[in-house]
């Protein structure tokens, strides 16, 4: 049982480049999330999905896109990378949104640097 | 606005007890979570409180007072491996998680 797997672990991008962070989970969770974590700040929600075919914006969606074609996969696309997108990105999943069912399982994280 | 406050950093001695506080102001309340995050790793779930009172889980306990907008995480018999950041998160009325910036706990021998 791998849990949540995200790739790559590290990536350096040049300004204006695009890339996709991959995320897959094998726990049959309906809910999936993308967060970014910056030093001294709380986790910020970028996008989330409540099931295949359904996605919604979080607190900081600008500059990102997502898709959810299957229950397992939730890739995050960065278009036209900017230095402000330098961060550590975490994918997470949960059984549901209701209180106690919302225990998040996180992937190992992807450290992205935009130069 | 919504806000979660926790101390930035704390230091404690191996074998001792430490209490990490979290105060919150959110639009509604549907539960409070504590996560542990070792440096360079992902957060992992520690505890969940939705009713007032103390939840004990081995060396770790978490307390909640909804009327005061206050929680604490109590770690007993500290071990070097407890050196990590501890994240407090509150689920608001829309079932969205609001995260604190985390408390970095340093354990000294």
Helix fraction bin of chain A:
under 10%
Q: Given the C-alpha coordinates, what overall shape of chain B results?
A: globular
Chain pair forming the biggest interface: A-B, 19 and 25 residues
Helix/strand structural class of chain B: mainly beta
Number of contiguous helices of chain A = 0
Compute the CA-based radius of gyration of chain B.
13 Å
Shape of chain A: globular
**Which stretches of chain B are poorly predicted, pLDDT < 50 over at least 5 residues?**
none
Task: Give start-end ranges of low-pLDDT stretches of chain A.
Answer: none
Q: Compute the average pLDDT of chain A.
A: 94
What is the typical, i.e. mean, pLDDT of chain B? 96
**Rg of chain A, Cα atoms, Å:** 13 Å
Helical run tally of chain B: 0
What is shown here, in short?
The complex is a heterodimer of chains A (115) and B (109). Chain A is mostly beta strands and 115 residues long.
Question: Can you describe what's shown?
Answer:
The complex is a heterodimer of chains A (115) and B (109). With 115 residues, chain A is mainly β. In chain A, 0% of the residues lie in helices and 48% in strands. Chain A contains no helices and eleven strands. Chain A has strands at 4-7, 10-13, 19-25, 31-37, 44-51, 54-57, 64-66, 76-78, 87-94, 105-106, 110-114. In chain A, the strands form two sheets. In chain A, strands 2, 4, 5, 6, 9, 10 and 11 form a seven-stranded mixed β-sheet that branches. In chain A, strands 1-3-8-7 form a four-stranded antiparallel β-sheet, with no helix packed on it. Chain A is globular and about 40 Å long. The mean pLDDT of chain A is 94. Chain B is mainly β and 109 residues long. In chain B, strands 2, 4, 5, 9, 10 and 11 form a six-stranded mixed β-sheet that branches. In chain B, strands 1-3-8-7-6 form a five-stranded antiparallel β-sheet, with no helix packed on it. Chain B is globular. The model of chain B has no long low-confidence stretch (mean pLDDT 96). Classes of the chains: A mainly beta (115), B mainly beta (109). At the A-B interface, strand 10 of A face strand 5, strand 9 and strand 10 of B.
